[in-house]
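Entry:
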Amino acid sequence: MPHADPLRLVVLARDGSDRVRSAWREVRDFLESREDVELLAAALDEDLDEAPPGTEMAVVLGGDGAMLRASHMFGTRQVPLLGVNLGRLGFLADLSPQEFFDRFEDLSHRAYEIREHLMFRVRLRRNGEYVHDETGAGGEEGFLGLNELAVSSRTLHMIEVRLEIGGVPVTTYNGDGLIVSTPVGSTAHNLSAGGPILRQDLRAFVVTPICPHTLTVRPLVDVADAVYTLALQNDCDGATATVDGRTRLPMSCGDVLELSAAEVACPLVKLPGANFYAALHNKLGWGGQPRYRR
């Protein structure tokens, strides 16, 4: 049955590219033609300070980068995100513009599921004190992330990162760096570095070394309900900690990163029929056995 109240949403289209602006005009015209939707706000040139009261979802136009930006923008006041993919792979933004139009009845009738996904918070400690970035963010509050924390070298020097999980020493990684990823982020930098793919609804982190000097050091998966401590050891010139490819923190020898599950989760809107493994087939070209010519 039709829902009595209009669907209250905001649209995020912060990318200034012609592709995104063209898609925004189509989406705007479509939404304005319907009586079962109320467009509360549209972020085109600047981020929203927060979602207007009563917002049920944020429609994000762009790729996975736009979805990450939206998650960062809402901070501890997360809003369900629906991604309309204008990029390439699109694991987070998984609807095409045409699918958004064709399946809008499901949205307006609230025939969708909201799945909450693990986020993390990371703090940088230097000489016993928590560090802020150039904007004044960070410190004891730390930085919120959805995809991954990556510690890497901006130079050709190998770096050493000592890892503890829940206070228990794991090992010291020697190589180009180290990634600690959420399940959502497992198909991003982690996958490129040879890490495993995790189901998006798992509550776990995956640790993947980047080009390790010791070849027997392999990726590992562990629980999310523990503090992951990464300490920068010797040979750390040019090392940087990066959260979701957005927040960059220059590091020094002796710096310590503390990563733990965040107090909030990222809610994603999923329509009926959404299938993680089907998405892997479509996005990664998993076509089964190769077909050889006779």
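The chain is about 15% helix and 35% strand.
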